[in-house]
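As described in the Methods, two query proteins were run sequentially through the folding procedure within a single session, without resetting any intermediate state between them. The first query and its resulting structure tokens are shown here.
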Amino acid sequence: MAEELSGLSWAQQRVRDFHEEGHHPVAALPTVLASDRVGRRVAWMREEIDEFEQANTVVDQADAIVDLMYFALGTLVEMGVEGEPLFEIVHRANMRKVSGGSVSTRADGKIQKPADWVTPEVEMASAIVMATSQYSLEVGAQDGSWAAISSMIEPLVGAVDRPTSAVSDFEIIGGPIDTGRDNAVDDFLSYTLMSEADFQDHIDFSLTVYPVVVAGFRTGEVYRTDDPLRRYGIVVKRVGNRVLLIDPSPDVLGARSVNIDDLFVGMKSAFDGLHRIGPDGD
């Protein structure tokens, strides 16, 4: 397959082949690496940086840098993220630093960001969402994920006539969502009608039958943090025991793989369920 690709995608596919042959992790969904994996990959990349620092020949320096590139691409493989579209975004952002004929540098020579700099993180998050789903990312307020989701699902179910920033997730979570459309209804499945054992089947069935599936959950359980907020995320797909969510909240920014059991616990903790949104009568 690597022979059919070009550029960074070609290189990343070759590293993916190495991971598969060497029984290294390969993520099928965008995944935040656990701290132990982060620690290992940081150590491996730091070894190459140290080798580069100590190298005395062109060959040794080049060898260290190429090895560093290999480990960096391997990290993206383990995260389940394609590097080429993100590289293009970062490149365009960097070119904005040197456009217009005026370039500002630090004392050590590093090119500085201009005063009107716009960070590329949201554009990168959008690229990851587009690569893994049929949605265009809308970033919502911390406690207003439904307002953003309503815009994201509009191409599939039509305009959703809900108030936007004035609606808090806390106010509407826990029952069927009023889509504001007579021909787009929420066939809500409460957590009380599911169990952890059959949750996978309910997700698979819902994704097969309904154009949009949304889950309400408490973030602390799903993301394994201390966050007490309740919010919505679009359920995109399931691969094994992982579920791909699109969470438009600014601290998550888009596509993220979560454990299916964590999602069920988070959904139960929020007293919510699966919102299967589709045409009236589905």
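Immediately afterward, the second query was submitted; its sequence and tokens are:
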Amino acid sequence: MLLMVSPHASRMPDLIGPHSITFAPPVEPRGYIDGFGNACTRIMAPAGRITITTQFMIADSGAPETIHPEAWQRRVEELPNDILVYLLGSHYCDTDRLANIAWELFGQTATGHARVQAICDFVHNHISFGYEHARATRTASEAFVERQGVCRDYAHLAVTLCRCVNIPARYCTGYLGDMGTPPPHGPMDFAAWFEVFLDDRWHCFDARNNTPRIGRILMARGRDATDVAIATTFGPCTLSGFAVFCDEAALIT
């Protein structure tokens, strides 16, 4: 099994105390960094039931995310070489099926931040959210046609539309608690969002929530959900239980 359950390296300086991953029954994990800079854990799972638990405490500013409406879009010929891969189609981001639609929808909008926000607004209103709509094999073009899904579908569709109009975009996964949002809160889950390369850096966008949030904790980035799966198994495996907690803790001084 390959696991991505650790905070991303960019958030490691914010950890308070140790980050632990435990296994029952015990196994010997091996860690490595993948080609996208994500911290991965590799195990040989024994036959039968195995329980994998991870927990950590992390410091966060508690402030909503900052919006940068002035962020401008580079022409393709000006992009750094290592960014070009995020313009290409990938397993769930089938740009070939949505390229013409993307240009029809967004070709006349202002470039840069405004175009990405227009894509987020469209995706946010186009897809109906529901856990009952989850399907692990759904591509971006299928989400566009079916108009339903979960946060990964919002992210895949937004990433694909951005790539179609020459905006580099990458898929992100991690924790996103309900801090700063009004109740009632739904069941907790891992969250998916995306980043785009504008001006000279990556900017965070979230087509599912489509508003600045508090306490977003990145775990992994990649081309799409294939690259950042929480667990990838080689051999038959059945998920029998799954629980995610992301709670605000009292400040310790």
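Residues 140 and 157 are 4 Å apart (CA to CA). We note this only descriptively and draw no conclusion about the first query from it.
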